[in-house]
Each structure stands twice: as C-alpha cells, then as structure tokens.
Amino acid sequence: MSRMQTIGRSQHDFDFASYSKAKRDLIEIRLTEYLPVSSPDTLWQSMRYSVLSGGKRLRALLCLAAAEAIVGLNSDIEPFLPLACAIEMIHAMSLIHDDLPALDNDDYRRGKLTNHKVYGEATALLAGDALLMLAIETFIEKTIKTADPQVMLNIISHFCHAVGASGMVGGQILDLAFTGKQQGMENDKNETNHIDAQTIEAIHKSKTGALIKFSVWSGARLAKANVEQLSLLEQFADKLGFAFQIADDLLDSTGNLETLGKTPGKDLAANKMTWVTVFGEKLAKQKMRDLEEEGLAILNNRVLQAERVKPLQELLRYAVHRKN
Ligand code: IPE
Ligand code: IPE
Ligand code: MG
Ligand code: MG
Ligand code: MG
C-alpha cells in the first residue's frame, strides 16, 4: 500500500486524500527535476537516493497548505513549490544524519537501507551537507523572479534559525545528550539529571518542531500573510510539530518495520527521552490528542478564512492519526 493511501479519505467534508495526492505528485515531479543525475556521480546518487525515496512529504504539504490558507485553495501554487521542495531537501538531510552510527545508528529508512548503509558514512555526511546547500540555492534561484527580495531574505534568515543551533541541529544534540551518548554534554543536562515534561517538550520542539514551524510560517510569509495570520499559524504549527513527534514516538513503540519503513523499538533500547518512554503510551496519546484539539482551535479564528484552512486542519489530524 502506498504511503498516501494510508492517509485515506477524510471523514470531513474536504477530500483530503485527493488533495494530498495531487500536491504530492507535484512535489515529486519537482524534486526529481531539482535533483538531476549529475557529477560527482556518487554524491548525487546518494542525494537522490534519500530525497527521491518517498516519505510522507508532510513538511512540503504543510508549506503549500499554509500558502493556500492565505491565497485561497484554487490559486496557483507554482510560486511556492521551490520552497516546499527545499524544505524536503533539508528534511532528507536531517534524516541521513539522524540515521548515522554516531547518532541513532539506524539501518532502515522509508523501507530501504539507510543512506550510509548503501554509500558509506563519508558520502552520507557529504550528501547531507550538499542537500542543505542545494535547498537554499533552489529556493533562491527558482523564486527570485517572482518574490520580493526582502521577503526572501526574511525567509532565508528564519530558515537558518530553524535548522541551526537554535532549531533542528540544537534539538538533535539535546536528544543525544539525554541518551548519554554524546561526550562532554554534562553541562547541557540539569543538575539532578531529572527529565521533566518541559525538557522533553524543548527537545521535541527544536529537533522536529522547528522545521515544521518553518514549513508553515514560510509558506504563509511567501504568500504575504499579515502579522496576525503569521502569529496564529506559528502557534498552530507549534502544536502540530509537538504532536507529530509524539506520534513518531508512539509508532516507534507500537509499529513494525513493514509499516514504518524503519526499525521500531529503538527509542527504549537507546534510552531516548520521549513522552512515551518517560510517561507511558496512555499519557502520550492523551497529550497528543490535547495538542490536536488545541491546534484545531487555533485555526478557528476570524483572521483566517474557514474554507482556506481545511488542508491545514486535515494535515494536523493526519500528523496525529497516521500509521507510518
Ligand atoms: C521522521 O519524519 C523524522 C521525525 C522528525 C520524526 P517523517 O515521519 O516525516 O519522515 P518521512 O519523510 O515521512 O519519511
Ligand atoms: C528525528 O527524530 C528528528 C530529526 C531527524 C531531526 P527521530 O530520531 O525520532 O526520527 P526517526 O524515528 O529516526 O525517524
Ligand atoms: Mg533521532
Ligand atoms: Mg532517528
Ligand atoms: Mg523516532
């Protein structure tokens, strides 16, 4: 069964299955175009291997849906596709690096061997680096003719913040710090080494939430959302990003390799601090559902048009109820 089939038809009045399939097809076509067979051969093969290997494309879908929340559902999404694809390149980079032996040491990703298992660690590291740069280059080159340069600079600045030490990369090192795997990280733990809800929330919100928040914010920013709209959409994405990581942690504890495409049970084995490993499945599910309700409530606001936020509503529901 394809990943998109698992999303299923929405129970609500918006045909999310058709919507997401149409958008995902566009994303795949464009990503293939942005990652040609090129030289140096091995480096590009390794980059293509990870980017063009499926995946839910949630972050790209969120970016496009956030743009549509501003410009409307029947508008041209062409101007937003390079940004959405650039975000998927960054996401692929984060996955390649996350799977390395020095981090989570995973053998499977999206139902295939991880990048370093196929190409070796050196190439995997470099493919990640190259994808980071290709993402920025793609966004600039493919957007410069249509977008206001000031808006683009603002987006690039937020992008660096979301991916770097204050965002995804910072979250990844905290995630490692609390597994006891990273040397010399004692100062990053609190004195008693007591992991509380706030600590887990901070790890989740940076390692996963920051890029998800950027996906939503940047789509809306490029669509010229106003300050009130941007603020609401950021609050919404904050809930979605956190709920998404709890769903990932629940799937790690309950899923299987066939459905997930990655090895389950790794968080407990690696002593990872997640809502599930610390508070248990029941409370994790409760927290996730609370975040879903809070996120949906945020969208229900007069500064956003109800018709236009339907894809975002469904993407939040999907982030929580998905099976992979
Ligand atoms: C996995 O992300 C990494 C996390 C942040 C939990 P996804 O579950 O979105 O991975 P793909 O892109 O669908 O494979
Ligand atoms: C990954 O979190 C977060 C990033 C890739 C930034 P996980 O380590 O839980 O993701 P999976 O389970 O390997 O996909
Ligand atoms: Mg990890
Ligand atoms: Mg991992
Ligand atoms: Mg995980």
Provide the descriptors you would attach to this structure in a database record.
324 residues; mainly alpha; Farnesyl Diphosphate Synthase; two-stranded antiparallel ribbon; 15 helices; 2 strands; 66% helix; globular; disordered N terminus; binds 3-methylbut-3-enyl trihydrogen diphosphate
Q: Would you give an account of this structure?
A:
With 324 residues, this protein is an all-alpha fold. It has a single domain (14-321), classed as Farnesyl Diphosphate Synthase. Helices cover 66% and strands 1% of the residues. The chain is built from 15 helices and 2 strands. The protein has helices at 16-34, 41-51, 58-71, 81-99, 115-119, 121-143, 149-163, 168-177, 197-222, 227-254, 257-260, 266-269, 275-279, 281-299, 310-321; strands at residues 108-109, 112-113. The protein has a two-stranded antiparallel ribbon with strand order 1-2. A hairpin with a 2-residue loop joins strand 1 and strand 2. Helix 1 (16-34) crosses helix 4 (81-99) and helix 4 (81-99) packs antiparallel against helix 9. The longest helix has 28 residues, at 227-254. The radius of gyration is 19 Å and the shape is globular. The model is unreliable at 1-10 and 190-194 (pLDDT under 50). It binds 3-methylbut-3-enyl trihydrogen diphosphate (IPE) (2 copies) and magnesium ion (MG) (3 copies). Residues 98, 104, 106 line the site of one magnesium ion (MG).
Overall residue-averaged pLDDT value: 93
The order of strands across the largest sheet is: 1-2
Shape: globular
Contiguous helical run count: 15
Q: Name the assembly state.
A: single chain
Give the number of DSSP strands: 2
Task: Give the topology string: H per helix, E per strand.
Answer: HHHHEEHHHHHHHHHHH
What is the C-alpha radius of gyration, as a whole number of Å?
19 Å
Ligand roster: 3-methylbut-3-enyl trihydrogen diphosphate, magnesium ion
